[in-house]
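Example for tutorial group B:
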């Protein structure tokens, strides 16, 4: 969710609380043993009712080695640095210069070009791109299990249903805090294969592993990743597939260490090696170098068309390694700029794939800003962007840095295969021009979880939820037309309500809960914030709206962090 504008008194309270806790931890690491620190953190977690004791102890156990390594090996570490990252939207980073950096690279002169409408382009030879994201396959999912377990992820075999009066977990998944069983994963891929006979490419934007971060380990993560990728290869043996890493695909969750960190207790190199091998069936050998360096790569798909995939988990504020070094981890952004500069020289068009959207509240501000600069510089080369992580069906509009109200780029979110939480499973299909590689239209396919679970012995009834062009009546999906659309939404509550229904993928529980006008305005504002912390376009939209943007801060600091952790 897009955060509200700053509330200075609350922001100061959040920052002071964080600074106090972190200051105590930094002092404690000099005086206490490993076990004493573990006991302190576990006790604090339980007494503050952040989670159950089993979850607290498991989560601390999985992250303790990483966190202590970072605390012990980061030069000049201060509470300001840590709180400035974790609570960046509260303005806690104002006094820490280490979080401010820019890329040192000559991007050359930007060529002049005119945006061309794709309104009347012929779709007879267009490309078909299937986008799947956020699978979150749970190998321990238990149909009829406990769906209200009081833990971050439910519907698992280890969770007793004894004494519970709540309805049990559904066969195909559940609207409550649950991921999906294997039969839902396999049914989704079979549905795609049987329904869409001509698929040119598949984009998979991360998060194969489930949300049980406090119980997972390297062995379980490897097993789940291999199982899914093997089945994906089997179902689409002749289709080019371009995968990226999600924040749940590593262990511990969210942690992406620099390549030079080789201590097996904290290194991420096991994941990069695994994916370099598993992805090799789809990717050329030359991609291995950057996959091993940081989980990113580029491929010339065919003359004139290049795909670039990023490990945008390097911008995620819950990636503790940002505390260790936040400046362009793995040199990825510098590499991106150099790759796009070469693509521009060669007359190539580019699609960028990543997991975490750069406008997402938990993407590091500096990283997000530098990425936007690159996209602005190469907006005639990059024709579309695709990401995941949020589980919602939505999109982001980028605006130029020199003309802040001129739209120049669109990022499409793939939604999620998991219904976690209060969503229907989905995948998306894009129609793209075969010469410009612009997206001409987008379709979202879903099934209704309530209906499917009432008929658990039958396969789900998948259907096309909507075509973007038809549903919104737009002439095209160019940045200019999409910008016109959201300005219409700002003054048309019916259009905003329609957007919300698609946003939650017509999930019964989400529709029953509803979304009041302030909620709808937050959804609208979110579209226009493609750079974390830049609300220029949002403010303009809110001035047009008859209902002001909400200033309710909602959950407390710990609840907000847990929600971020789960995504």
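The residue assignment follows.
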């Amino acid at each position: 969710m897009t955060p509200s504008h700053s509330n200075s008194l609350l922001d100061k309270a959040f920052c002071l609380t964080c600074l106090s806790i972190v200051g105590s931890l930094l002092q404690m690491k000099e005086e206490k043993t490993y076990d004493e620190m573990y006991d302190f953190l576990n006790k604090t977690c339980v007494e503050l009712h952040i989670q159950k004791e089993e979850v607290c102890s498991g989560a601390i156990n999985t992250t303790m080695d990483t966190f202590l390594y970072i605390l012990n090996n980061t030069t000049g570490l201060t509470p300001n640095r840590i709180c400035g990252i974790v609570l960046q939207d509260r303005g806690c980073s104002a006094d820490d210069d280490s979080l401010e950096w820019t890329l040192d690279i000559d991007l050359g002169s930007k060529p002049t070009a005119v945006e061309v409408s794709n309104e009347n382009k012929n779709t007879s030879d267009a490309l078909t791109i299937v986008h799947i994201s956020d699978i979150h396959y749970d190998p321990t999912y238990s149909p009829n299990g406990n769906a209200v377990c009081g833990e971050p992820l439910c519907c698992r075999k280890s969770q007793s249903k004894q004494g519970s009066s709540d309805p049990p977990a559904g066969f195909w998944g559940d609207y409550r805090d649950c991921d999906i069983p294997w039969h839902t994963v396999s049914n989704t891929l079979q549905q795609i294969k049987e329904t869409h006979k001509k698929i040119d490419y598949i984009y998979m934007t991360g998060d194969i592993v489930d949300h049980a971060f406090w119980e997972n380990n390297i062995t379980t993560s490897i097993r789940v990743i291999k199982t899914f990728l093997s089945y994906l290869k089997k179902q689409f043996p002749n289709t080019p597939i371009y995968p990226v890493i999600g924040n749940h695909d590593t262990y511990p969750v969210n942690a992406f260490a620099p390549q030079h960190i080789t201590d097996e207790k904290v290194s991420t190199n096991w994941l990069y090696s695994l994916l370099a091998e598993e992805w090799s069936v789809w990717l050329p050998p030359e991609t291995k170098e950057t996959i091993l360096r940081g989980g990113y790569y580029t491929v010339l798909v065919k003359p004139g068309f290049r795909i670039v995939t990023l490990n945008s988990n390097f911008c995620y504020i819950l990636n503790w390694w940002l505390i260790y070094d936040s400046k362009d981890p793995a040199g990825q952004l510098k590499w991106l700029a150099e790759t796009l500069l070469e693509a521009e020289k060669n007359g190539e068009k580019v699609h960028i794939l990543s997991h975490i959207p750069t406008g997402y509240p938990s993407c590091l501000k500096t990283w997000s800003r530098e990425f936007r600069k690159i996209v602005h510089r190469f907006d005639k080369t990059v024709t579309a962007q695709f990401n995941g992580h949020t589980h919602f069906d939505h999109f982001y509009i980028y605006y130029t840095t020199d003309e802040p109200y001129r739209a120049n780029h669109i990022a499409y979110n793939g939604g999620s295969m998991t219904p976690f939480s209060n969503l229907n499973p989905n995948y998306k299909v894009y129609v793209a021009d075969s010469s410009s590689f612009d997206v001409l239209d987008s379709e979202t396919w879903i099934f209704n979880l309530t209906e499917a679970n009432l008929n658990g012995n039958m396969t789900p009834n998948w259907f096309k939820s909507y075509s973007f062009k038809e549903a919104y009546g737009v002439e095209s999906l160019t940045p200019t037309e999409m910008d016109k659309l959201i300005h219409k939404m700002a003054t048309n509550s019916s259009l905003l309500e329609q957007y919300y229904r698609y946003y939650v993928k017509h999930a019964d529980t989400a529709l029953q809960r509803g979304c009041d006008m302030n909620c709808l305005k937050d959804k609208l504002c979110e579209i226009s914030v493609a750079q974390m912390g830049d609300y220029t376009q949002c403010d303009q939209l809110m001035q047009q709206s008859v209902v002001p943007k909400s200033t309710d801060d909602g959950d407390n600091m710990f609840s907000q962090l847990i929600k971020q952790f789960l995504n």
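The chain is about 40% helix and 10% strand. Compare this with the pattern of hydrophobic and polar residues in the output above.
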